Amino acid sequence: MKSYKYVIALVLGLGLAPSVQGATPYEQYIEEDVNRRAFEQQDWKKAIEGLNYEEPASQKKRREEAEQRKRQEGQHGERYEAMRREPGFGMSSQLGSAILKFLAILLIAVVVAILLRAILGLEMAPRNKKIRRQGISGPINLDEIEENIHETDLDAYIRQALAEGDYVLAIRLYYLAILKELSLKKAIRWKKDKTNRQYLQEMQQSALAVPFGEATRFFEQAWYGGRPVGESEYRQMEPTFRELVDKAKA
Question: What pLDDT digit, counting tens, does each position of 124-145 carry?
Answer without folding.
Answer: 433 333 444 444 456 888 889 9
